[in-house]
Each structure stands twice: as C-alpha cells, then as structure tokens.
Amino acid sequence: MKVLAVPAWLAQTNAYLVFAESSQVAVLVDAPPEPELIGEIATAHGLTIGALLLTHGHIDHTGGAGAIEAEYGSQVLVHPDDDFLTLHPAEQLRRMFGMEPPGSYELPESFGHLEDGLVLELGGFSIETRHTPGHTPGHCCFYIEEEGALFSGDQLFAGSVGRTDLPGGSTPDLLRSMAEKVLVLDDDVRVLPGHGPETTIGYERRANPFLQDL
Fold first, then answer.
1. Nearest to 25 by CA among 47, 2, 46
2. Which of 84, 98, 165, 194 is the most core-located residue (most Cβ within 10 A)?
3. The pLDDT of residue 193 is above 80
4. Could you report the per-residue pLDDT of 122-158, keeping only the tens digit for each?
C-alpha cells in the first residue's frame, strides 16, 4: 500500500491518497477545500481517484468533495448521521471560523452512505468502516487490516483527540467509540489522522493523556 498525505487548506487537514503500487486508481480519504492541490499530487503520480471516503462532515474535510467528484467521477461516501453537516457548509463556516475562509466549497451531486462494519473493496484493498461518533454523530474511521492502517479522521491524533464542542459533538460518545472501535486494535497499527503526524495505536495507548482512563 502506498499512502500520499496531502496537508491542505487553512486547517492543514490531511487528505490521503491510498493506492496499490501496481495501480493507477487511488482511494481518497477526505477532501479539504483545496481540491486543486490534491489533483496536482494525483496527476504527478499518474493517479485517478476512484472513490472519496469522508471521515465526517466538517467543511475542512469535505469542502473539496464536489470538485473531486466533478473532475474524476468519484463515488463520494459519508455516514448519514452527518448529512446535516454536509448540506450546510455556509453555516459551518460561520460556526467554526466566524468568517468565510478562502477555498472551494462545492458539494457533490449526491452522497453514498457508510455504515458501521461496511467493508468496501476499493483500490485493491478491503476497507472496513468503523462508525466512531463523538467528534460528530456520523464520524467514521477506515481500517485496512491487511496493511495495519487506520485512517482516524478527527477521532484520534498524535497526543490528542477530536474536539466535541461543535454541533453534534459528545465527549462520552467519543470515549466510548475510542474504547470499543479504536483501542481494540493492535499496538502496531498505524494511525493516519485528519491533522498532524502519523502515530500508532500502541504509542497513543501509552502516552496520550486523553486515553489514560480507558
């Protein structure tokens, strides 16, 4: 498995192009409102984007989804519990930033829906959806067991966890999701978060101050 991390936009949100070494079709995890940067990286590596998986509905992870769909014909998937977020980007911008930051906020023509336990065969990989509410009601992580990799969105970061003070957020739900869906994974599983550097389950289990009570 090859993974290209593309930190983009004001929030330096990580978009991930995931592909097999022998393939020219990538899966994209999250699409910040800087789709042209994602497109440049994909083109430089000879990739097209077959599907876009959204960890959740916040604008810094979804704002480029419409442009990606239009450019590549990608299927765009999100959990339905976050539909209330994906349909109202302007309201999100006001709540999260108090302003309208620069960027493209095109919505896809349609969303496909994720559900807990759904396994998607994409790009030569089996990608398991783990519904992890807390940061948002529909937040999902994506686990590729054979590669030992978890795309954690804004669930788990290196040394921190996702904020829960925005609409639909819940600290008890986030911690429950962490205990039941994330910390059950092996210590050597790579964690590729929505912001910041890569880490591992084992390191966060030992060192992350937000996880010590779990």
1. 47
2. 194
3. yes
4. 989 999 999 999 999 999 999 999 999 999 999 999 9
